[in-house]
Each structure stands twice: as structure tokens, then as C-alpha cells.
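sanity check this record:
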Amino acid sequence: MTQKYVLFLALISTLFVLGPARQANAAPQLQQGAIVNAASFAVDGSPGSGIARGSLFTLFGVDVGPAQAVQANSFPLPLDLGGVSIKISAGGNQYDAVVLFAINSQVSAILPSAVPAGQASLVLTYNGQASNSITFQVVNRQVGAFSRTQNGSGIAVLQNYVSPANQPVNTLNQSAQPGQVVILWGTGLGASLNNDDRNAPQTGNVAPLDQVKVYVGGKEAVVEYAGRSGCCSGVDQINFRVPDGVEGCFAPVVVTTNGIPSNFTSMSIASNGGTCSDPYGISSAQLDTLLGKPSIRVGAVALNRNRTQISAGFFSLDSISDIGVATFKEYSSAGLLETPGILGEAVLVTGSCTVSTFRNDSAGEDLPEAPSVADLYRQRGLDAGAAINIQGPRGAKALPKDAQTPGDYFALLSSPSVPTDVYLEPGSYTISNGAGGADVKGFNFTQNVPTFFTWTNKAAISSVNRSQPLTVTWTPGPQGDVTSIFGSSYSIPKRIASTFFCFADASAGTFTIPGYVVAAMVQSEGTAETMGIPAGALSVGGFTALRDFTADGLDVGAFVSSNLELKYLNFQ
């Protein structure tokens, strides 16, 4: 077995959480929805959650394996590993799954290529004790892309192809060039070519190339190969050429098979193949400096105006709130190579979108927010003083320190319940922190908040049809600024939620959200309140490009202002 296979065994096994000590003779326990694609971790019931024939899947449960992890390490791959075996029932027949990894809370395996598409059931046996049966949907193809964070989000596991002997991993300081071939690693292209999942796979295109689409930074790439890797059963590689006209540190990457999207990851692209830069974010020179440090200190200050519109039956609300937010954190700089979250997941390539889908146990109580993978690399909050002070055209305000979350400062600058009580308006604002704090010393800088924009076709959009693209329009803004389009939808019965985020040129005045992005969203089900508030929202906002500020104790300081218009509606 190759070292590359060991890498993928590691990728599908590092998220396990050790459960309680196993009780003697306790039967394994599985929950409905506990089976997921081993690369994407797509939540059961969401678009793209079907398990493809011949793909790697991960199963979570209690007492499903031994206390110490075991993994397969040679061909032919086992049908029983550490006392763990799996049987799949479908179409009146039973199939034994290859078991690759097992521990008491998690098992990873290969769905047999011979299993037919449709509903199937699964029973796991450990040391002679059978689990309860769970059902799931088998599909012919459903790609999941491996990510560096090993949970299906963030930066993709991808190699830049230079030569057969030189295929470096794509990173922020080792970017792919436009036109270069890259190799995306995943699982779910379909059944193996020879119906053999236990031995080294037969290579070749598993899926017809016209059924596999790759979109990078919102542009379609040319796919040159879509099939099994020669190293590893169940592991696929998709070779494609980076589209021209796309550059940036976090260009979204998504694969569709017959129109159904994979999870969204990202990659780094630079014309010189070296360190990337973002036109609205951080420069390559700044990034090189940060990567040379064991940890980095990041500060951000944001002034935001939010206008919210809710209509439900005879109830209607249109409110304005002005908000000030500041955050000062120290991160492990290794996180720069793993996730865009440290420098702001909002900094995408212009004209692109990304989607997150996740379990939401509080669906219906508030609009859900996708969990940030930046939390994995956060070391501590930084003390920047007692408050962040704001001085603008309408006087002075302060953002007090959050006593519960070190490094965070927040204040409502106006009252949403009083339409005339507004604080933010276009003009010059001075931000300071007095003498500063223990970690971040005193700073004082002035920035401009530009004229607010208007979402011009808001009234015409009453719901979102997930089967077709969606166009939004706004009053054009200055070139160099950006427009963000954010969508959120949740299902109360399924307890899942999804969000999308798109980044567009403010001066364009229009942007069409691609069909594969809208199709990846969860269908809105249930209401937030008994009065029937929709189970989703769409917002369009104007953002200034990140503007630097300096302070003793910070490696990066950034200011941004924004104004957003949000409307509650359903994704149907």
C-alpha cells in the first residue's frame, strides 16, 4: 500500500472523538443520518448527501469499533477490520463493504461498487454484536472533495502538476498558474471500472467527462481526467486546467456531476505560481512576512449598516440598525495554509461564490451562521483596551470590551426600533483606542464611509427558486469596492442549514448567482415563529475593500465599512 493511501486514511480518520469506555457486550449503536461522504461530510438530507457507489464513506456511532484505532494497510483490503464488518442491503441483495478504519466512535469504509442506486440499509457488526439498521440513499455519482481542514470546508487537497516527478501541494505560497493542470482529490465519481474495491484500482475515467464540471472562481475549467487514482481504492482524482482570468488566495472550487454540486473548497492561484495576493485583501508581500512567523496577530474594525425587511401575513417590519464591531486575535500562522478564515472568509475571488451546509440543532430560533474553521487555529483574544472609540459626523460612540469573549468589542450604534435613530452616514470616521491595552497599544486612524447603495430589484424577489440562477441588481458603487450577496436557508424538520456567499464588482451593478450555487442550498422548511416568518433570507451589501491600519502589537490591521439590505424569504 502506498504512502498516498496512508494520507487518505489519515484524512478520513482525524475527526474522530473518543467516546466513553465500551461496555462489555454492548451492541453498536448508529443514528439515522450518521453515514456521510468521507471527503465532504455532507449533512444527511442536504443536496449532495447521497453516497456514491464505490466511494469512501464515514459512519459515526457508539461502540462501533475497538478502543484503539485500527486501519487497513495492504491489498486486498479487508471486509473485517478489528472485528468490524458492514453489510449493505439494497435491491433484495446483501453486499459486504471494505472496512478501512475503525475506532469506537467512527468507521470509514468503501460502499461496494455493485450496490445499485436507490434506497439502501446498513448494519454494522462489531465482535459479533449487530447494530441497529439505518437507511441511506445510494447514488451513481456524488463527488466530495477532500479539504485541508479534513471536514469538507476550506482549502482543497490539490496538487499543481509541473511534471510526473514534480506535483507540489497547492498552498498560498505555492499557487497554481492560470492554464496549469491541477489535480483535485476526492471520492464519489462512481463505481470502479472493474467492480473490484478490494485491490489496487483500474485507472481510467470513471465518469464521462461531459458529466463532470469544475468551476474555479466562478469560471468553468477544462476537465482532462475524472477517475480513480492508481494508488487507492475509492479515491478519485479530477485533473483540470485552471481557467484564465482567475487569481487570488481563496478561489472557490466546486465539482458538479450531472448538475449536482460537491462541497465547496478553495485553491490559490497566482500568475507567477508563487505567493498569492488578493485585490481586496492581503498582498503577497504581507503574506510572505506572515508565513515566516510562528503566530500572527490580526485586528479588524468594521462599521456596518443593516436594513432588514420581514413580511409574514399581515405582519411587516422594515428596520435599520447601525453596528460597530472590532476583533483582535492571535492565531497559529500554520492556519494561513489551511483556512481562509483567519484573514476573513469574505475575501473571495471577484465573481465567485461559496456554499456551506451544516447541522443546525437550533434551526428556527435565529438565522444560522456557518461555523468558522478559523477557530481551529485561534490561540487567544488580544486586549486592545477598555473600548474602541468612534468619532463621526453624528458624534462619538464607543465599542466596549466583551467581558465574555476576549479580544471582541461590539456596540449597537442605533436603535432598530426607532427609524430616525441612526448613527452611520457617509463621511469621515476616526477610530482609536486611547492608550490601548496589554496586547495592542494605542492606535488612531481615519477612514471614509462611502455613500450607501440600494438593492434595486429587492421588491421583485419574493422567493428563491433553487432550480435556476438568480440575478440581483444594485446601484453601482466605486470601482475597487465590492458587493456581497449572502443567502441563508434552513429546514426545521431536518435540522440542517446552508449559507452561500458571493463576491461581485460593485461597479457592475448586477450579478447572477450560478445555478449550481442555488442548487446547493437546503430547501426552506418550517417557520421561525408561529406568525410564519420565512425560513431563509437573502441580503445584498456594499463593502469597501479592506483598508490597512497599524498598531503596536498587530501584524495585520484592517478596517472595512459596509451597508447591507436583508430580506426574509424562502428557498423553494
